[in-house]
Amino acid sequence: MEAGPVDKIAGRQDRYMSDEESPSSYEYVALPDRRPLRFPNGARLAVILTINIEYWEKSRPGQKEPLFTGGPMTIPHALPGDVIDTANWSWREYGQRIGIWRIIDLLDKAGVKPSCTVNGLTMVERRRIIDAVNERGWELVPHNWAQNDLLTYYAGKPEEERAVIKRTLDKYREVVGRPARAWLSSAIRGTAHTPAFLKEFGLIAYCDYLNDDQPYLIRTRHGPIVCVPYSNDINDFNMFARGGMSNSSGLETLKLCFDQLYAEGAETGRIMNFGVHPHVIGQPHRIGALREFIEYANSHKDVWFASREEIASWYLKNHESHIPPGTSSSR
Questions:
Q1: CATH code linked to domain 42-59+79-321
Q2: Tens of pLDDT, residues 177-197
Q3: Which of 45, 101, 215, 260 could form a disulfide with 315 if both were Cys (CB 3.0 to 4.6 A apart)?
Q4: What residues does each domain of the chain span?
Q5: How far apart (Å, rounded) are the C-alpha atoms in residues 12 and 3?
Q6: Exposed, middle or buried: residue 65 (CB in 10 Å: 0-12, 13-18, 19+)?
């Protein structure tokens, strides 16, 4: 049987990598050294609306260091990790009880399908949300076991990291009813082993990197995986919760980003990721900014509201027309 496109890529990886090298790596390829990226159906801009449906542990017995918050707290002054911070925990829970349903209602009316990241604990503790998303055919992307338990805590302990990833993926298959295809680490913090473990488990997209507006291939010991880049600048935490933007200034920022990428996409396709959190954008005084941005994006032609799996599946078949094998700007 002739090798398929992914198998052929994997064969090339064997020549590039050995067990002594990093478990994952990618080439530096400057934008001028790439060929034009042509998305399906002539799309100039792929918009990924990411809803981060996250679950924090309430406490960890015996841990005096504060639990990782993942962003600004509504009430400052972190408590010891073994003390339940009811104010901040319940602020985040607002997103699970109210905010996510406000967002779901908006997207149902707009006819837009987002990409939803979910922790393993979200699938255990908030099954009602997972089922609602799954019933709509929206993408679900695993996002670590607990939001406060970063993969970087396991740096230097790859088997422990692998176990966390496997536990999350096993729960995903059990609850969602199909294997995961894309992964976003909580707090976008993975290790050099993370892409390789994900490829080993059959995923096709790794989404932690912030370094591009286009997809590209990451080499791993187990073959290639597609980087579908994330953005932490265009994110409701950085814009509203951390940045203190008003709805009008936030919406203007979103439009400026969209306009620039849309214009550039006429020459070579771009990705715009807008990451949101139900306890931030799902507040009654902020939901209007999301509604207006979606209306603005939908008023343009050749815009693809894409899932990470859709982008990665397409790119695995078309990457050579974008960045031919062997292309590098480092030499």
A1: 3.20.20.370
A2: 999 999 999 999 999 999 999
A3: 215
A4: 42-59+79-321
A5: 12
A6: exposed
